[in-house]
Amino acid sequence: MTDNQKQEYAADESTDDPTTDDMAIRTDVSESVSASGPTTSGAPVVRAENVDVWYNDDQALQDISLEIPENQVTAMIGPSGCGKSTFLRCINRMNDMIDAARVEGDLHLRGKNVYDDDVDPVALRRRVGMVFQSPNPFPKSIYDNVAYGLKIQNKDGDYDEIVENSLKRAALWDEVKDQLDTSGLDLSGGQQQRLCIARAIAPDPEVILMDEPASALDPVATSKIEDLISELAEEYTVVIVTHNMQQAARISNKTAVFLTGGELVEFDDTEKIFENPDSQRVEDYITGKFG
Ligand SMILES: Nc1ncnc2c1ncn2[C@@H]1O[C@H](COP(=O)(O)OP(=O)(O)OP(=O)(O)O)[C@@H](O)[C@H]1O
What interface predicted TM-score (ipTM) does this complex get? Predict the structure, then answer.
């Protein structure tokens, strides 16, 4: 199993025994969703307030505050090592799995701080799905890859229908509908990544995090993933880390520019960032003067 597959398995492994009383006092973030009422499109779904992250004594993110709007694509760009992936992993608490990592500050999902003691990270990750850089299907059939999250959650429902709908939403159904029993590993790289997207959306998350989802793909497969991301934003809030500035400009509504040292230098509408940024450092970065 690759590191990515292990990460995905580990992220889903429940730390709770649902039969214990302890479960009763744990808060599924979804409960706070309904408690906070419906949100309108464009309202912030994720709100970071003064987030700092350290790996041992090295600070990777400094005082990050930003609001990620609903049903839009928000891109995180910046040079290598500036903390983009670290920030993404704050949102679904994947940094919890890195021993050296320490997160301070508040990270709200629809008004609930995901770092509160009563939040179960496994429940959180059902609300906040993730797609990694390299496609990482499990060594299972296409069907079982998509149904995986439903099965481990013992979710009720018509699995056949959910698998079909998820594959349709991931723009893969037509290519695989006659081979659902074959291994996900037999698909092309681009198909594998769309399978991973189908797996991420099957449990019906609210937010989908994507860490350079097209960087391992050829231009045709990349273009399909980009079209898909724009479509997904009609139903989900998408946050994408990308090294590719043209990609950020093409598909995102909002762009956050991180620079070396883990500083969020500018966060604004994508058009503004690329056409008329406030900061000279951002201008220099997007015009290729460094990075
Ligand atoms: N597991 C880890 N342990 C220790 N340090 C880490 C770990 N992960 C990241 N870092 C450090 O934190 C900083 C930010 O890394 P991160 O991967 O978040 O940046 P990034 O902007 O996503 O980089 P890239 O674009 O190269 O993927 C870097 O200095 C990196 O070396």
Answer: 0.98
